[in-house]
Amino acid sequence: MSFMQALRTRWHQADSLVCVGLDPEPAKFPAQFAHDPDAVFNFCRAIVDATAPYVCSFKPQIAHFAALGAEDALQRLIAHAHAAHPGIPVILDSKRGDIGSTAQHYASEAFDRYAADAVTVNPYLGRDSVQPFLDRADRGVVILCRTSNPGAGDLQDLAIDGRPLYQHVADKVAHEWNTHGNCALVVGATWPQQLREVRMIVGDVPFLVPGVGAQGGDVEAVVTNAKTADGTGLIVSSSRAILYASNGPDFAQAAAAAAKSLRDGINRHR
Ligand SMILES: O=c1ccn([C@@H]2O[C@H](COP(=O)(O)O)[C@@H](O)[C@H]2O)c(=O)[nH]1
């Protein structure tokens, strides 16, 4: 099943638009992992298993693994998610972008090495840099559009032909690059007005929406501004607020409760 089919199926079957972000930070792990040589994998696996009933996807962030030399844990974690929770797509957040000949290797890294169902990509180098990802029609290509961070507007808001750059990205992705129907866009939860503007431009193209939880984005504003007509279209991602809801022995249950609470909060406004 393609990423887009799996996502749509999961939205409906789990009645959830929640994505749990997997951003391991060992200093925040509960004490029980202090002497565990495989702590990154074991912590993340417990989170995946506890939160699976409440999510439409998982989103491991590659830097959190690579900085620890834990690429092997990332590979095993994605394999575990697929085996234990079939039908829940995994989005590798790696924000890759390079010339085409190198981008081919980044696409292979995400889809062949890690077996991710989708990957985040930086569009700054232009279409040929994204093409190796777009060509994998069964996998999702989640392209940065208007990011959630405070400095997002420094470049993304620069006006070109009377429109901010992020609107050009949205337009190009939706109307030129999405020939296989496998594109999605990153639009931060911290920018409700931009969420609405991008939705107006791109129709039903899905949004990956980071920025609720630790970054303070407003769930109601996200849903009302960015949902599609059928009340879906969103992958609302939260990492720290779920992963570190408790640092006690109940960490997995606390994460599950936080994921369920986010799901229910979103669904109240769909
Ligand atoms: O615009 C963006 C794009 C990606 N991210 C990533 O999402 C998570 C957010 O973590 P929280 O703990 O929920 O704040 C993190 O992995 C970022 O790299 C983003 O925040 N904004």
Automatic annotation (TrEMBL):
Q: Which residues form the active site?
A: K95 (proton donor)
Report keywords, A-Z. Answer: Decarboxylase, Lyase, Pyrimidine biosynthesis
InterPro entries according to UniProt: Aldolase_TIM, OMPdecase_AS, OMPdecase_type-2, OMPdeCOase_dom, RibuloseP-bd_barrel
CDD domains recorded for this chain?
OMP_decarboxylase_like
Domain annotation Orotidine 5'-phosphate decarboxylase: ranges? 17-255
Among the Pfam families in the record, one is: OMPdecase
**What pathway does the annotation place this protein in?**
Pyrimidine metabolism; UMP biosynthesis via de novo pathway; UMP from orotate: step 2/2
Report the superkingdom from the record.
Bacteria
Which SUPFAM superfamilies has this protein been placed in?
A: Ribulose-phoshate binding barrel
Q: Which reaction does it catalyse?
A: orotidine 5'-phosphate + H(+) = UMP + CO2
Which Gene Ontology molecular-function terms are recorded? orotidine-5'-phosphate decarboxylase activity
EC no.? 4.1.1.23
Q: Which family does it belong to?
A: Belongs to the OMP decarboxylase family. Type 2 subfamily.
NCBIfam families membership = pyrF_sub2
* HAMAP family with a match to the protein in the record: OMPdecase_type2
What protein am I looking at?
A: Orotidine 5'-phosphate decarboxylase
Organism the protein comes from: Lysobacter yangpyeongensis
User: What gene name is listed for this protein?
Assistant: pyrF
